[in-house]
Each structure stands twice: as structure tokens, then as C-alpha cells.
Amino acid sequence: MRPSELIKFKQAGRAITILTAWDSLSAALVEASGADAVLVGDSLAMVALGHATTLPVTPKQMLHHTQAVMRGFRGEPSQQPLIICDLPFLSYQCGEEQAMAVAGELLKESSAAAVKLEGAEPEIIAVIDRLVRMGIPVMGHLGLTPQAVHHLGYKRQAEDQRSQDRIFEQAIALETSGCFALVLEHIPSELASKIRRRLAIPVIGIGAGDDCDGQVRVTADLLGLTPRQPPFSPALLQGRELFSSALGQWVRDQNSPPTTATPPPEPGC
Ligand code: KIV
């Protein structure tokens, strides 16, 4: 599926589903779920690499994980979910040339067909404009943008009218610059709904209410595997407890005495 095809889903009123993956196992699970797209999010810095924020992950690591994700798919290539890969911190904020090189390598060396980047400051709009003109599909991301954690924190964004107006204008700017879709994270649902109605491109929410064209979730959060559960993404099951108790049981079983002792071999045999 090409990224631009998601617009047809919006036009048809069909909800878009996107889940993150970070390795072959998680990719296989997401593919089997039937989600439309896989996001190799820079949240893998926390989910897979144990960092406290998304900032340390590098372009090389993002490529490594995207290649693992693509190797996890089992279906016919034409049936596989679309892969969107996050451009990590400092891979696009320093200018168009570097952004082109990093995004280009991700698309060349993996089967990712699009990149996602955060923000809509004039410098970022210039980068998006360049990527899109050079044939690289871009997904935008506004609201809680984790690469700006030291500025915004992890709290809900756009609580006052001024910042709501700003995000609304930025969303329009992202569509104008050629983004094929927009992620809105942890903002009031009324604002997400207003943006969804204003834009032609799909608005994909996470912590932005139900009135979006689709939803994206961090798979590890849904599976209850992450140590800190975001308030806007409740777990579907208690994965950590489930898996650790199964493994603990296996370890205890190895140390418990066998129920039936094996008889000693017959002498002379
Ligand atoms: O990195 C990520 O997983 C993301 C989602 C939260 C949208 O950007």
C-alpha cells in the first residue's frame, strides 16, 4: 500500500489502524493483527533499548530495527502493512541536506515507504517540503512531541486557546507542505476533531479522542509490557505479569524434584 492511499480510507470513512513494531517478533504480531501500517517509532529507544527518552536513538539504529521489522513480515509483499519509520532526534532538525540523506538511506536500505517527523516550525516545514518534492512521503506529528520532552514534558498539550490556535495553524501548514497524514498526540479531543474536519489528509490520534480518522498505539503499551503506562493508552492485557509469571513457573519447575524417579539400569545390561 502506498502512503497516499490512506487518504482514500479517510474519504471512505474507514478507520485507519497503525501499531508500532521494533523487531521481527513484534512486526509479525502487528502484521497478524491486520493493522494498516506499522510505525517503527523512535519510542523503540525506550521500548527496546532501555533509554529514558527517545532522544538517544540514532539513524543507524532506526535502520537496523526497520530492517528487523521488514524481515518479520510473512505475507506477500503486496499484502504487507505499510512501514513508516520515525526520523530520530537531530536527523532532520539540522537542515534539509541531512534530512534527505537520513530519510533516503532508510527508504533505500529497508522496505519503509515513508518517514514521520515531529513539529511544524518554519525550518521543519522547509525540510518536509524538500523531502516530499524529492519523492519521500512524510507523516507529520503535533501535540505531545516526545523529541521536545525537555521543553514540553510528557503532559497533555494545547490546554489554552493560544496553543490550540497554534496547533490548528501548524496542522494546516503540514498538509500544505505535502504530508500524507498527521499524528496528533495527547491533545484535547475537541481540537483533534476540529483539525480532522478541516484537513483532507488523515488525522491519526493517540490520546486525542475518538473523532480521528485513525488511531496509532505503541504496541508494547497495548500489551502491558512497558514499565510506565501512558494515561491515554491503557493496556489490553497485563503482559509483564503474564510473561514473567510463566517464565518464573518454568524456572521453578526446573528446580523441583522429579515426581517419578527413573529406575537404575539392570546390572549387566
Ligand atoms: O515513536 C512512536 O512510537 C510514536 C507514536 C507514539 C506515535 O511516535
Describe this structure in words.
- It is a single chain.
- The protein is an alpha/beta fold and 269 residues long.
- It has a single domain, classed as TIM Barrel, CATH 3.20.20.60.
- The protein contains eleven helices and eight strands.
- Helix 8 packs parallel to helix 9 (189-198).
- It is elongated.
- The protein starts with 5 loop residues before the first helix and ends in a 14-residue tail after the last helix.
- The relative contact order is 0.12.
- The mean pLDDT is 96.
- The structure holds 3-methyl-2-oxobutanoic acid.
Summarize the structure.
This protein is α/β, with parallel strands linked by helices and 269 residues long.
Features:
8 strands, eight-stranded parallel beta barrel, alpha/beta, single chain, 13% strand, TIM Barrel, 269 residues
Distance between the termini: 67 Å
SS-based class: alpha/beta
SSE string, helices as H and strands as E:
HEHEHHEHEHEHHEHEEHH
Bound compounds? 3-methyl-2-oxobutanoic acid
Arithmetic mean pLDDT: 96
* CATH topology group: TIM Barrel
CATH architect. name: Alpha-Beta Barrel
Under CATH at level 1, the class stands as Alpha Beta
Specify the biggest β-sheet: 8 strands, parallel, barrel
Number of domains: 1
